Amino acid sequence: MSLTCRELSVKINEKVLLDIEFSFRNTFALIGQSGSGKSLTLKALLGMLPQELSVTCNVEASYDLERGKSVSIVPQNPFTSLSPLTKIAHQFLMPLEKAKKYLEMVELEEHFLQRFPSELSGGQLQRVIIAMALCVEPKLLLLDEPTTALDEQTKEHVLALVSRLQKEVGFDLLFVTHDIESVKNVCEEVAVIKDGKIVERADIARLLENPQSEYAKQLIEAGFKHRSFRQ
Long-range contacts of range 75-78, CB-CB < 8 Å, 24 or more positions apart? Predict the structure, then answer.
């Protein structure tokens, strides 16, 4: 499977908010600070932007890009992604046996189906969200800063789970984040985005070892400083 974005641009009046192109197979990450255009890219791909924006989306993929058919998204904050007054079982919108199957894929037991979201930890909730994303058997899984609300140990667990599922299930993965460290064991290639434009692209090992742009150097340095502080 593959995705080729020949042109993806977003404008409001004459101001250009996003103007990029990229292609990938298997796993790809967009790295940048808040406001760089990462989440805007995902929303543009899914046709989720307001009508007042001028959007050009010239994308070719080996699957349908309509959300809910071949594409699923895992959002940033699992705490706001589910109804707090509804048990997990009723939020899957499918028979319990099928929901149980997807929970098992994300390493959660059947009894979680009978709990309310408030009874789960952040990591458990994010795994529930991932299970729900897998229900449509996606060809493309979009990750929008999926570990921002998680502690370091839980973050590593969730990222390892996503990496394993990508290999086992075989979906393409597009991961957007500000945290370059979080993609190093998940994605093969990475593009650095700044002010709506891609300023550098490389495989992840080469980028970490020898970044070519000053902006990428700053992101890497900030990521490692943050890691040292957490330890």
Answer: 75/129, 75/144, 75/146, 76/144, 76/145, 76/146, 76/148, 76/149, 77/148, 77/149, 78/122, 78/125, 78/126, 78/128, 78/129, 78/149
